[in-house]
Amino acid sequence: MAFRHFLRVDDLTTEELRHVLATAATLRARIEGDAKYAPLAKKTLALLFAKASARTRVSFETGAFMMGGHAVVLGPEVGVGTRESPKDVARVLSQFNNLIMARLFGHDQLLELAAASTVPVINGLTDYNHPCQLLADALTIVECRGSVDGAKVVYVGDGNNMVHSWLELAAVLPIDFVCACPPGYEPLPEAVAATRAAGLSTVTISHDPMEAVVGADVIYTDVWASMGQKDEVEARERAFKGFTVDSAMMAATGKADTLFLHCLPAERGREVTDEVMESPASKVFQQAGNRMHAQNAIVLHCMGLCDTVDE
Ligand code: CP
Ligand code: NVA
């Protein structure tokens, strides 16, 4: 059977991404309304986590169950890259499971795993990117404002894996993307250059968050110290002074309907205030809930099962 990996947002074409987002909505209704719908009957997913997770684990495992399949959750004890090479892990899991979802540290490990896998591999986050999160983010923006197209999205904070996946999205959907970060915390220049070369979206790197957010349709942030960087918390706290998304920053957009999004988990009081997290502008829990709906669609897409949704 033909299958596809999903390792970065722009593994999807513009048309495929629009189709996956539309499928997520119809699939949600089908799963909720049709108790017999089971496109993953007798199929199993391996969910491999080298790093901590709440949303990714629960959304994939619950999604597999809701679609009639089964998920096997594997933790850091697998030792990808230490106990066993990524390619050996892939060749073993491929024989038992119909899809592998992997959250790993090094992106190169994910590429090695995917190259050796004979079943679809979905990226559940690496140090480089987090494409599943972007599917949920885009779905949330569609639900709230009708479309992602043309939105001014201002990411305030660390130019990290979330920013790289926003850049991947901006390569396939037309947006006005701004990353406002302290000097030295920019996204990788090659990721910025690739999106600019794709020619669909504008990409701006700013060091002035209050100026950057003017006119924003979406303000997005993430932790200042990602998993694997927790020994840098204090240094980063100093570097990111002035980058907390607070009510003054939300007001500086000059728009009454700016959305606030965060991939979570959030460190309230650092990158975002309690007040913004709890404000009507904040859609962070709708966004978290959309992880499952968006991922159910990408699982079917990767397995070539999207046609089952409208049967
Ligand atoms: N946003 C996200 O991926 O959350 P987890 O790390 O809890 O899976
Ligand atoms: N940048 C964060 C995202 C968590 C979902 C991290 O990698 O820890």
Pick out its properties:
311 residues, four-stranded parallel sheet, binds phosphoric acid mono(formamide)ester, five-stranded parallel sheet, binds norvaline, 9 strands, single chain, alpha/beta, globular
Structure description:
This protein is α/β, with parallel strands linked by helices and 311 residues long. It has helices at 14-33, 55-66, 86-96, 107-116, 131-145, 161-172, 189-198, 209-212, 233-239, 247-251, 274-277, 284-303; strands at 44-49, 70-74, 99-103, 121-123, 152-156, 176-180, 202-206, 218-221, 259-262. Helix 2 (55-66) crosses helix 12 and helix 3 crosses helix 4 (107-116). The protein is globular, with a radius of gyration of 19 Å. It binds phosphoric acid mono(formamide)ester and norvaline. The site of norvaline has 10 residues, from helix 6. Norvaline binds at residues 125, 130, 160-162, 222-223, 226-227, 263.
- What summary fits the major beta sheet? 5 strands, parallel
Number of strands: 9
Query: Strand share of the residues?
Result: 5-15%
The structure class reads: alpha/beta
Unreliable stretches = none
Radius of gyration equals 19 Å
Mean pLDDT: 98
Q: What's the arrangement of strands in the largest beta sheet?
A: 7-6-5-8-9
Q: What pattern of helices and strands is seen along the backbone?
A: HEHEHEHEHEHEHEHEHHEHH
Distance between the termini: 19 Å
What percent of the residues sit in helical stretches (DSSP H or I)?
40-55%
> What's the helix count?
12
Shape: globular
What hetero molecules are bound to the protein chains?
A: phosphoric acid mono(formamide)ester, norvaline
